[in-house]
């Protein structure tokens, strides 16, 4: 490892994205309150089947077309929803659905996403009917029950940290440089929404974020814990819900474990982006917000010989 703190920022935040419902469309915001389990509102909701198992774009690519809106003030620090605060959902061929941001009263057990299972908050019959009609099969919308449940990340990488319904970790970061490098290799460039990062940064070299093990965003310290292994979702056009071979076919050529980690056990994975946890998330105080334009100061990074 090498210490590498300089007075000049390595990069700056160029975009922040929140995905309130796992696998549904994201929201681009100018600022976001941060919490130990991720940006506020990020992956707080999940669509499940009649066995409580998560639906994702891997099996239900139509979820990509569900637009999600939250009140602008929801991204201000300390904002609390009132009885008239709603999450608004839109999808092709569907009426608008309004989901109250006030706590739902029903708890449902047996909700599962990947390795985790527990209880969640049921958003009610109207939301269930809406998603059932849209997907053509019994579906329910549930909210993470933060009062009674925790979902730890992989303890071997970030012990003591937890997340909500995101795949693995509370935050995912990607650089514009990496997007540009990939798009130069693709016949048809793709937008960043294929990769669903929370934080997009600009001003650094391509794949520089792979090496960041500790860095500050403004005054907050984050830890890069694991490269993000990519599934089928980047192959799904987020405007149409239709999957194709790219960009994963191209990524296999230069971002696979065979290329990046040739001496380790091969799992057939490709990597793009860096999973993060917020290191100083347990300290008290106000002003826990990240904003577009915030500087990135790298404190430690993997030192390549």
UniProtKB/TrEMBL annotation:
SUPFAM superfamilies attached here? MOSC N-terminal domain-like, PK beta-barrel domain-like
What the entry lists under InterPro entries is as follows:
MoCF_Sase_C, MOCOS_middle, Pyrv_Knase-like_insert_dom_sf
Q: Where is the MOSC domain?
A: 139-299
Q: Which GO terms describe its biological process?
A: monocarboxylic acid metabolic process
Any GO molecular function: pyridoxal phosphate binding
Protein name according to UniProt: MOSC domain-containing protein
